[in-house]
Amino acid sequence: MSLKEYKKKRDFKVTPEPAGDEAAGHGDLSYVVQKHQASHLHYDFRLEWNGVLLSWAVPKGPSLDPSVKRLAMQVEDHPVEYGGFEGTIPEGEYGGGTVMVWDRGTWTPEVTDVDAALRKGDLKFTLHGAKLKGSWVLVRTRGSFGGGKRASWLLIKHRDRFASAEDVTVEKPRSAATRRLLADIARAGGGNIAKAAAGDPPLNAPVSKPRKAAPAVVARKRIRRK
Ligand code: MN
Hints:
This protein has about 230 residues and is mostly beta strands. It has one domain (about 5-195).
């Protein structure tokens, strides 16, 4: 586990993201999902292990439905303190856009040897988050991306009392840390509010322009009767 790639990609004089260092473990393993409106909206799923956050980019976000498998592309390890980051990454920087702490908490491995499970590509674990709870699995597939350098995994909910047909990304769009929507975070951080709002559910998205007034007289559709 190394933060070399994480540090190489970022200019810490420009981005407010933490430079971070490998942290000594103390007790509970942290878990976080950061909703990230960058060039594409995605959810960064992170599990603390060996002093860093193992990280996967999940384009569609997690699903509580055990029949749904969500693509999770493994990306570079992040510092543990990155899990507390919510804010705006300047446009033009790596990952430029808005980051929200969408869910957070701790995780427990369901296997005795996590490193072996990661090597094997089959990690079962329990999440203790505000939104995501219960048993999950990350399974590595044969596919890869980024020129074959990076592994594709699937994030899947196991059947338990926390499984649900509810679309948690739509039903629970707010920050687990601050209750803000992406647009609120962008506004506070001097980011692109319209771009951020595009990642919020339509009903919650702020209206940037005044609504068009409804026509005063609505022509009634004539109903033909035979
Ligand atoms: Mn990201």
